[in-house]
Specification:
By secondary structure, this protein is mainly alpha-helical. The chain is 55% helix and 9% strand. The protein is built from eight helices and seven strands. The protein has helices spanning 62-82, 99-108, 112-142, 148-161, 166-178, 191-209, 213-236, 241-245; strands at 27-29, 36-38, 46-47, 54-55, 86-90, 96-97, 185-189. Strands 6-5-7 form a three-stranded antiparallel β-sheet. It has a two-stranded antiparallel ribbon with strand order 1-2. A hairpin with a 6-residue loop joins strand 1 and strand 2 (36-38). Helix 1 packs antiparallel against helix 3, helix 1 (62-82) packs antiparallel against helix 6 (191-209) and helix 3 crosses helix 4 (148-161). It is elongated. The two termini are 47 Å apart.
């Protein structure tokens, strides 16, 4: 019996064929709870009966939307690090601070731990997320990933680390709310915080718009092309070695 209860299907070489994918049988897995859901007859989206999430066979325009959001986040990352993220005024004196200058001030003040946290959350995490998304998009669109398991691990890391970039925004919002002493001290958010918040939101949307099932689709398509090319080569080169000598 085959993997789906039917008789095994023979290939041209006498072996067993690969079982059909769930999508070919009108089914798809829910990306939230991983329940296997039957799709409508037209192949459109439906709702998961377990968690109520929207289930697609594949997310429509996943690659194009993820590319657009990734490029947008990359462009916004420059003003987020150049423009001042906040201004601290104490006794009438103060100057705007960017993310990098804030990290350097914390480092020179001996607060290495806080400086490291700010650097990782504000600079390292957004850059890692954008680079990871770019690698996934390039491998899926321009060639099948050679190591799909590693690509899936990269996707899980990218989708999991994005929330830590909100640490800076929480800190700024708390400082603005607490440090309001009139003419003595005040903290105001700068334009860099708006750009940085947009980068965080855009990268989170980019991670959600990327369909990780496309990684396996690319690998399956590459295997199918190799199988077809191998079968074509066998048909073009018959094993009748003696036929060529009897001319």
């Amino acid at each position: 019996m085959g993997a789906y209860g039917g008789a095994p299907q023979a290939r041209g070489g006498g072996g067993l064929s690969r079982p059909k994918k769930a999508l070919a049988q009108g089914r798809s897995s829910c990306l939230c709870c991983h329940q296997l859901v039957s799709l409508p007859a037209g192949g459109g989206p439906t709702r998961c009966p377990r968690c109520g999430a929207r289930v697609h066979g594949r997310i429509d325009g996943s690659l194009m939307l993820t590319w657009a959001l990734t490029i947008t986040g990359t462009l916004l990352l420059l003003p987020a690090n150049i423009l001042p993220i906040m201004t601290v005024i104490y006794l009438g004196a103060g100057e705007p601070s960017t993310i990098i200058s804030g990290v350097m001030q914390l480092y020179h003040a001996g607060l290495w731990g806080i400086a490291l946290i700010v650097f990782v959350a504000s600079i390292a995490v957004p850059v890692m997320k954008l680079v990871g998304l770019t690698l996934l998009l390039v491998r899926v669109q321009f060639g099948p990933p050679r190591f799909p398991l590693q690509a899936m691990k990269l996707y899980r890391v990218v989708s999991g680390i994005g929330r830590w970039s909100l640490l800076d925004l929480f800190m700024i919002s708390i400082l603005v709310a607490l440090v309001d002493m009139g003419a003595i001290a005040s903290v105001t958010a700068g334009p860099g915080s708006t750009a940085f918040a947009t980068v965080v939101v855009v990268t989170m949307l980019a991670a959600r718009s990327f369909d990780p099932r496309l990684i396996w689709d690319a690998c399956d398509d590459a295997r199918e092309e190799l199988r077809e090319s191998g079968a074509t080569g066998e048909n073009n080169n018959p094993k009748d070695g003696g036929a060529a000598g009897n001319v």
